[in-house]
Amino acid sequence: MAERKPLVAGNWKMNGLRADGLALARAVAERARQPHRCDLLVCPPATLLIAVGEVLAGSGVGLGGQDCHPEPKGAFTGDISAEMLRDAGCSHAIVGHSERRHACGETDADVRAKTLAAWRAGLVAIVCVGETRAEREAGRATALVAGQLAGSLPDGADAGKLIVAYEPVWAIGTGLTPTLADIAEIHAVIRTRIPADTRILYGGSVNPKNAGEILALGGVDGALVGGASLKAEDFWAIAQACG
Ligand code: PGA
User: Fold this and answer.
1) What is the 189 CA–ligand 1 centroid distance (Å)?
2) For a tag on the chain, would you pick the N or C end, based on fewer CB atoms within 10 A?
C-alpha cells in the first residue's frame, strides 16, 4: 500500500486579528519543534498570510489559503488568485469548503476550476466534499460524495497536487461526528476514485478527545480542523494523536 504521511491542517476561517493570529502561529511553530508524526499546515485568513508565513518560517509548518479564484488576475473585486496565495508563501489552498459551496453557491464546476487554478499556481488543492444532514438521512451520502468528486476533480490528480477532505456539512462546527463506520465507508468510496498515494482527511468537529479514534481509522490520512485549530494546545493534541 502507498505510504501516506498524515496531515493535520488547521482552517482558521474568518478568525484572527493580527495580535491573536500571530500569537497562535507562534504557539503552533513552538510546538512543532517537538517530535511529531504528521505534516502540519495552517490556513489563516488572507490578511494574515504573509505575517503568519514569517512566523512559521523554518518551523516546518505549512501555510495554506482558504479559497482561490479560478483566474490568475483581473477585475474580480474582493477575490484572491492562486498565484497571489503562492506569492504570499502558501503551498496549499482549500477549495470547495462547504461554507463556500453552501453560503456562496459554489458548484462542482466552480470547485473544479479552482482546483485547476491551484495546480496552475503550483499549489496543492485540498478539495472538500461532504453531504448535508438531509442527504445523509435520505441514504444519499455516498452517492452525493461520489458525485461531488466526479464534478470537482480534474483529471491528472496526484499526491503532489491533491488532498481530499471529507467534511460532512452537518458535522462542521456542531460537535457532531459521523460514526467511525460511516467515516470509514465514505473514505473507502473516495479512495477508489483518487490515486493510491493521495491523502484523504476527515473534517468536522475534530477535537483532542475524538481525534485518536478517527485518526486511527485505516483510510483516514489526517484531519482538517476548524474550531479546535484556534487553540494551539488543542491543535497540537490532535497532531499528537496521529500514528
Ligand atoms: P470544525 O470545522 O472543526 O470547526 O467542525 C471543520 C472545517 O470546517 O474545516
Assistant:
1) 21
2) N
